[in-house]
Amino acid sequence: MIELKTPGEIDMMRASGKVLASVMRQVSEAIEPGKTTPLDLDALAEQLIREAGGIPSFKGYRGFPGSACISVNEAVIHGIPDDRIFQPGDIVGLDFGVILDDWHSDSAWTFPVGEISDDAKRLLNVTKEALFQGIAKAKAGARVGDISAAVQKYVEKNRYGVVRDLVGHGIGRSLHEEPSVPNFGKAGRGPVLRPGTTICIEPMVTQGTWKVKTLADDWTIVTKDGKLSAHFEHTVAVTADGPQILTQE
Ligand code: MG
Ligand code: MG
Prior knowledge:
Elements: H1 7-29, H2 38-51, E1 55-56, E2 68-72, E3 75-77, E4 91-100, E5 103-112, H3 118-136, H4 144-157, E6 161-162, E7 168-170, E8 177-181, E9 198-201, E10 204-206, E11 212-214, E12 221-223, E13 229-231, E14 234-239, E15 242-245
Antiparallel strand pairs: 1-4, 2-4, 3-12, 4-5, 6-10, 7-8, 7-9, 9-14, 10-13, 11-12, 14-15
Bound molecules: magnesium ion (2 copies).
């Protein structure tokens, strides 16, 4: 069942998302090539979330050890923060959630470390734009498949792959709610989006094959061919006035 949120509840989620967006920016600004590690960023994310009165929702989720998923290069999502040192040319996916006053927000962004290749820049730009193509379809009366189809069409037009194994989701008092929001599918299919529907739209895009595998740590999802992957995500509310991004400052 899709739980619809009142405008007041959406405001609570927006407050949570504002904390998330601020922490995301500050953590990304702390990335220094040749110096910082995923563990440094994870510690900073947790500290900043807690200082803002929030709770890092990923910490301990199904046993996840970090506050943030940090997925580098060929890692798609669910990277466990480790002590590798970021190198120029890396791309770093930061993905985390915040609970503020019982309301969840969830967002991801992929950042360049120093100067990155033109191919990597293009991957980041296309994935980010795919997110916004999907958000534009999150209108009252539309269906989840309209979002899915818009994301898939844009990504494949740019000759990249769309990961099938992992999808976006509803969000609210829980991190994961109905409906599922795949990044692939057909327009006109799936649940209807009504005012008060709150969802995470999160394209995961690959340079090569869309096929992925899980590493031995049981968390990190990487591309099967070892090519790069990017991930961008916003928490979005469907309203009578159109889609509203909740995870921004
Ligand atoms: Mg996320
Ligand atoms: Mg999510």
